[in-house]
Write a structure and sequence with these properties.
The complex is a heterodimer of chains A (118) and B (363).
Chain A (H helix, E strand, L loop, with lengths): L1 E6 L8 E6 L2 E7 L5 E5 L13 E7 L8 E10 L6 E3 L16 E2 L1 E4 L2 E5 L1
Antiparallel strand pairs in A: 1-10, 2-3, 3-4, 4-8, 5-6, 6-7, 9-10
Chain B lengths: L1 E2 L18 E6 L17 H6 L35 H9 L4 E6 L12 H18 L7 E6 L5 H11 L5 E8 L10 H9 L3 E6 L13 H7 L1 H13 L2 H4 L5 E4 L6 H15 L10 H8 E4 L8 H11 L5 E2 L22 H16 L3
Parallel strand pairs in B: 2-3, 3-4, 4-5, 5-6, 6-7, 7-8, 8-9
Helix pairs in contact in B: 4-5
Classes of the chains: A mainly beta (118), B alpha/beta (363).
Chain lengths: 118, 363
């Protein structure tokens, strides 16, 4: 079923908001590039609320002493407790993709309104 | 098509709940600001803070968890630091889980000062007075650890004697850093704790280092924290603290425990060969530790139920582990998601409650 969650302007690029739909906690994220993603809102590790986590990017550096790059801003959601990093495009934990993953939900945009399929 | 309001609460109602009583052995309360201690500080110490001659130092590194030292959701709306709000602590721990007792362990900044020990002692004394006045009257479930400056063991002993009889004070907390507490220099602290029937709790501080120092990265330092506890226990054993203070009990907090089988085996093996160097140690080290020391479970290391059982089997006792959340820190352990649900019920009861009740002699 489709649910209207918000207007696109209500979530700025690089920001997120939480919703509860059918008693399911869901975090809607907007990357720095402006794309929307929706994820189940509890971290599978110890069930913290991902809505309180930090939405950021990914560090890249080939070895100690090299300059850090910071990529994919707004696409990595870190758990507010233990800091596990989740790829918002897939729901997978970056360091445990096979065992720790949150469900993602299809989103669509129509007339500047964000719709979530749950 | 249905519109959905923004939700600030994302807890769902069909989550697993642990319903048996819990004793949380490691909660880090803190002041709202450095000014909180001023009413409890006499001159000349108060003036040093009032005239901005000193402010509490921060850690020598940045924390790489997502929000620094603390859980991202533990920051009070008032803007005061995580751990300073009883109301938020009540909402996020005391009333959220079936907590029967929560033991405050605070912070250890004066206790790791490398200079000005009289000032350090005064700060810890003020902290204790503030703690007893501002936290214990809020909730009967809260119990206190008193802080001392171990740099001056005689002053520390006086502070323990000053507050040791308080009915809700159950522990003296000491920071794990670079100090071999087993050495005779520190024994006045143990003597005072024993005569006041207080547990000695050891908790790692930012002063702790691994065998190669802090390392280059925060993750290195954090991984190696248990090395401080391991070295500390070796110091206590070999300097005869267990033999000299036969009624004293200890807690090792937030330093892990999965390394303990190795340490017990290695201590015993070395004792069998080398005991003549330390003739004041009359028993196998493992016997002392099993009888007198308990270890908080946080941070659990995400190993399997089978490995929990294997490790406890290797320890040859289920009496050593005591549960802790470490609220409000980032590596907080949730009571419903850190201790494996499928451990035997009796064992969970021991870990969540009974072992701590025995350690602290609680009703």
């Amino acid at each position: 079923m489709k649910y209207r969650v918000c207007n696109v302007d209500e979530i700025a690029p690089g920001d997120k908001r939480s919703f509860t739909i059918k008693n399911i906690p869901i975090v809607v994220v907007r990357s720095k590039q402006g794309e929307f993603y929706a994820l189940y809102g509890l971290c599978p590790h110890q069930r913290s609320s991902l809505a309180a986590g930090a939405l950021g990017g990914l560090t890249v550096a080939p070895q100690p002493g090299e300059t850090f790059e910071y990529i994919r801003e707004g696409e990595i959601l870190r758990c507010p407790w233990h800091g596990f990093s989740y790829d918002v495009t897939t729901g997978a934990c970056l360091t445990a993709a096979k065992t720790l993953r949150v469900k993602t939900y299809p989103l669509s945009i129509s007339n500047q309104e964000v719709f979530l399929e749950v | 098509m249905t519109s959905v309001p923004t939700s600030s609460s994302t807890l769902v109602t069909n989550e697993y709940k642990y319903v048996e009583p819990i004793i949380d052995t490691d909660v880090h309360e803190t002041t709202t600001s450095g000014q909180d201690l001023l009413p409890y500080l006499a001159e000349p110490w108060r003036g040093l803070i009032e005239h901005k001659a000193w402010s509490a130092p921060s850690a020598p590194f940045a924390y790489w968890a997502s929000h620094g030292t603390d859980r991202a959701d533990s920051f009070p709306e008032s803007g005061t630091p995580p751990g300073s709000s009883y109301d938020l602590f009540k909402e996020q721990v005391l009333d959220l889980y079936p907590v029967k007792y929560a033991i405050l362990t605070g912070r250890y900044i004066p206790a790791i000062m490398e200079m000005q020990f009289e000032f350090a002692s005064a700060l810890e004394s003020a902290n204790n007075d503030w703690l007893l006045e501002h936290w214990l009257n809020k909730d009967s479930r809260i119990l206190a650890s008193i802080h001392v400056a171990p740099q001056d063991p005689q002053a520390a002993a006086r502070e323990i004697d000053r507050l040791g009889n308080h009915p809700r004070v159950i522990q003296v907390i000491l920071p794990i850093g670079q100090w071999a507490y087993g050495e005779p220099f520190y024994h006045p602290i143990f003597e005072a704790a024993q005569r006041n029937n207080l547990v000695i709790g050891f908790h790692h501080s930012v002063a702790v280092k691994g065998a190669l120092g802090r390392g280059r990265y925060y993750i290195e330092w954090h991984v190696n924290v248990p090395q401080g506890a391991m070295s500390l226990l070796t110091s206590l054993v070999c300097n005869g603290v267990f033999d000299k203070y036969p009624h004293l009990k200890f807690a090792i907090l937030e330093s892990g425990w999965s390394w303990l089988p190795h340490l017990l085996w290695r201590l015993d093996q070395n004792y069998r060969s080398l005991h003549q160097e330390i003739p004041w140690v009359k028993r196998l080290p493992s016997e002392h530790i099993r009888e007198r020391v308990k270890f908080s479970t946080q941070p659990t290391e995400d190993f399997s139920t089978q490995n929990w059982l294997r490790l406890i089997d290797m320890l040859e006792t289920d009496r050593l582990l005591v549960f802790a959340t470490d609220y409000p820190h980032w590596d907080f352990d949730s009571p419903v998601a850190s201790i494996p649900r499928d451990l035997p019920p009796d064992l969970k009861h021991r870990i969540f409650y009974e072992n701590a009740r025995e350690l602290y002699n609680l009703a």
